[in-house]
């Protein structure tokens, strides 16, 4: 199939259709509006349903109902809306319902701003709502990767019966790049014998997250944890110039693109830099990170937050390698030049190998 | 031997957790009888709320989803949009529907979602121990209105059926009660009409059923029926609030 030039948000929406998604429930919020707008037009063309809900809370609960009814279904939003959706997300995790949730991140906290950010990292990878649960979290860095991960996201959601989050940001959502779509797969007829479709000739199916007996609820939590452990094999990452790297930059999404340019510029100046880019943020590619950082004297995370990813990098490197942070927030984006200066400062200070 | 009275097929044999004198049991049975009579048990998907009837999924012999507090109409919307040919209903109390879930019920009604809502109004939060509900009457004593509900700080009770009947989306809205056998019979008729209207695809349907809560009203089951008649019906008058004409059922 020929390449087409598309905005990230629209490419995500089209990829969802190709992945067999026929139901979208959402609420307008910048900078992700192109997703519902595209699907409002496109879903009826393929026999699907688009509903603009009265709130983010209603939207995610419509997703709950549709997922429980056996459909491939999604919603999308940005920070403030994702916060509202947490109620439905934890219910879906508890009731083991598959769905895809897109967060095109913007600056926070509160109403924050509408410019790109990565400050919802903790919310995405640590659960987000109440109770012990996890989402599969995928972080694309190009429009093509948004398309590829969207298709994968629906398969993972169904395989694990768990919500999957695509964690993008305002730049990825708004930028245009050439993309190529694969042909639509025959995934719609995937068996979901647990779904509520009317109890015809079988015992009733119940979609539920309530366990009043503490022993039963503990058992349920153990079952969920075992599932999250099984997800460990879904790790995705990219290494760039890490083989001999003495300084490893770590970033995901938009920040990783910037960090990659920094690696090239640093190398041109004789600094052995490399990039480790986690693509799956949960499960986190811990072993791959440790491998990439084997020869590194230090690590520098580049992120559009006050330091969220950096905590997981320290944790996953088991505090054996000093991990520094370069973060910009509020919709401000790290400049290649500024990150390069930070790399040079660390290298020249002779203190790169000391804990910050 | 001829069986003249039995459990409807749409109910399980599970013993309910409802308090003595509570009318949830009657209402469950009416819904189940209607589903049986319409022959749609295997085509029906129910949504249980948060509140006293949270465990309704154990009592209805149907495919069921348990919804977050107040969100049953949104969950039902998701189900119905995926399965437009199936019958979808929510079963909700007054705290769930008229407080935390006000937005969801209003907009499901405004969209004309082809679902049926069974709205059980007992003017109190039962499950959590008798706190003031959006439908608690003026002067009614509850755990969080110990001096009696006073309009000045605590506002007025909401008449949900009348409010929703002003919208264009609903096809059938009625308020009934189950305090006498005659009223039980009328209530069943209203529930049946609501399901038939849903099956005819005309729009949103809701039956509000006045219900007792002797435990949290602090009276005997018999007294509670009298209290409902004397206090609730004057504020929540019974009858059909909206009915789209010309629907063949």
The CATH homologous superfamily of the largest domain in chain A is named Thiamin diphosphate (ThDP)-binding fold, Pyr/PP domains
Query: Count of DSSP helices of chain B?
Result: 10
Strand order of the largest sheet of chain B: 2-1-3-4-6-5-7
Oligomer: heterodimer
What is the architecture of the largest domain in chain A at the second tier of CATH? 3-Layer(aba) Sandwich
Beta-strand percentage range of chain A: 15-25%
- Kindly, what is the distance between the CA atoms of the first and last residues of chain A, rounded to a whole number of angstroms? 49 Å
Distance between the termini of chain B: 35 Å
Overall geometric form of chain A: globular
Determine the mean pLDDT of chain A.
96
Structural class of chain B: alpha/beta
Domain module tally of chain B: 1
Could you give the count of β-strands of chain B? 7
What does this structure look like?
The complex is a heterodimer of chains A (356) and B (249). Chain A has 356 residues and is α/β, with parallel strands linked by helices. Chain A folds into two domains: 4-191 and 208-233, Rossmann fold, CATH 3.40.50; 237-349, Rossmann fold (3-Layer(aba) Sandwich). Helices cover 40% and strands 19% of the residues of chain A. Chain A contains twelve helices and 15 strands. Chain A has a seven-stranded mixed β-sheet, with helices on both faces. In chain A, strand 11, helix 9 and strand 12 form a beta-alpha-beta unit. In chain A, 56% of the residues are buried. Chain B is 38% helix and 17% strand. The mean pLDDT of chain B is 97. Chain B has a single domain (24-243), classed as Thiamin diphosphate (ThDP)-binding fold, Pyr/PP domains (Rossmann fold, 3-Layer(aba) Sandwich), CATH 3.40.50.970. Chain A binds chain B through residues 23, 25, 49, 51, 53-55, 57-59, 61-71, 73, 87-88, 91, 95, 196-201, 204-210, and chain B through 41-45, 47, 54-55, 57, 60-68, 71, 74-83, 86, 103-104, 106-107, 111. Strand 9 of chain A pairs parallel with strand 2 (63-66) of chain B. Chain A: Residues 14-199 form the Pyruvate flavodoxin/ferredoxin oxidoreductase pyrimidine binding domain. Chain A: Keywords: Oxidoreductase. Chain A: This is 2-oxoglutarate ferredoxin oxidoreductase subunit alpha.
């Amino acid at each position: 199939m020929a390449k087409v030039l598309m905005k990230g948000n629209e490419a995500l929406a089209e990829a969802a259709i190709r992945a067999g998604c026929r139901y979208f429930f959402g609420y307008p919020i910048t900078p992700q509006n192109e997703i519902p707008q595209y699907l409002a037009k496109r879903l009826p063309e393929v026999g699907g349903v688009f509903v603009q809900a009265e709130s983010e809370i209603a939207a995610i609960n419509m997703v709950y109902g549709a997922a429980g009814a056996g459909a491939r279904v999604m919603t999308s939003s940005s920070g403030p809306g994702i916060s509202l959706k947490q109620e439905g997300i934890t219910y879906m995790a508890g009731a083991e319902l598959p769905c895809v949730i897109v967060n095109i991140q913007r600056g926070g906290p509160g109403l924050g701003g509408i410019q790109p950010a990565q400050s919802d990292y903790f919310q995405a990878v640590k659960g987000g709502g109440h109770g012990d649960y996890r989402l599969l979290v995928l972080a694309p860095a190009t429009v093509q990767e948004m398309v590829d991960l969207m298709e994968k996201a629906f398969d993972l959601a169904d395989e694990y019966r768990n919500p999957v989050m695509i964690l993008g940001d305002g730049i990825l959502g708004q930028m245009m790049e050439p993309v190529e779509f694969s042909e639509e797969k025959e995934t719609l007829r995937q068996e979901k014998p647990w779904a509520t479709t009317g109890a015809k000739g079988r015992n009733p199916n119940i979609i539920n997250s309530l366990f009043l007996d503490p022993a039963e609820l503990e058992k349920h939590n153990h079952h969920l944890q075992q599932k999250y452990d099984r997800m460990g094999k879904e790790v995705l990452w990219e290494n760039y110039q890490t083989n001999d790297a003495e300084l490893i930059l770590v970033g995901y999404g938009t920040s990783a693109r910037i960090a990659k340019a920094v690696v090239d510029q640093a190398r041109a100046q004789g600094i052995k830099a490399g990039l480790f880019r986690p693509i799956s943020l949960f499960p986190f590619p811990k072993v791959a990170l440790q491998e990439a950082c084997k020869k590194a004297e230090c690590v520098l995370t580049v992120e559009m937050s006050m330091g969220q990813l950096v905590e997981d990098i320290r944790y996953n490197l088991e505090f054996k390698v000093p991990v520094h942070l370069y973060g910009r927030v509020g919709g401000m984006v790290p400049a290649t030049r500024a990150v390069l200066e930070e790399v040079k400062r660390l290298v020249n200070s002779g203190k790169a190998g000391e804990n910050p | 031997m001829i069986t003249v009275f039995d459990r409807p097929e749409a109910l399980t044999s599970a013993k309910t957790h409802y308090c003595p004198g509570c009318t949830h049991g009657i209402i469950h049975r009416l819904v189940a009888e209607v589903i049986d009579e319409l022959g749609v048990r295997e085509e029906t998907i129910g949504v249980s709320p948060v509140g006293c009837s949270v465990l309704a999924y154990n009592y209805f012999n149907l495919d069921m989803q348990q919804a977050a507090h107040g969100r049953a109409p949104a969950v039902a919307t998701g189900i119905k949009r995926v399965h437009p040919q199936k019958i979808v209903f929510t079963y909700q109390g007054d705290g769930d529907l008229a407080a935390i879930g006000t937005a969801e019920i209003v907009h499901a009604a405004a969209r004309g979602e082809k679902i049926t809502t069974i709205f059980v109004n007992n003017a109190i939060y039962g499950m959590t121990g008798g706190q003031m509900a959006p439908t608690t009457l003026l002067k009614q004593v509850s755990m969080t209105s110990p001096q009696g509900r006073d309009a000045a700080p605590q506002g007025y009770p909401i008449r949900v059926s009348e409010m929703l009947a002003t919208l264009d989306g609903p096809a059938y809205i009625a308020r009934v009660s189950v305090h006498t056998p005659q009223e039980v019979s009328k209530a069943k008729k209203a529930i049946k009409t609501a399901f038939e209207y849903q099956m005819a695809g005309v729009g949103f349907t809701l039956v509000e059923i006045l219900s007792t809560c002797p435990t949290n009203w602090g009276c005997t089951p018999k007294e509670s029926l009298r209290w409902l008649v004397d206090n609730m019906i004057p504020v929540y008058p019974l009858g059909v609030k909206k009915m789209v004409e010309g629907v063949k059922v």
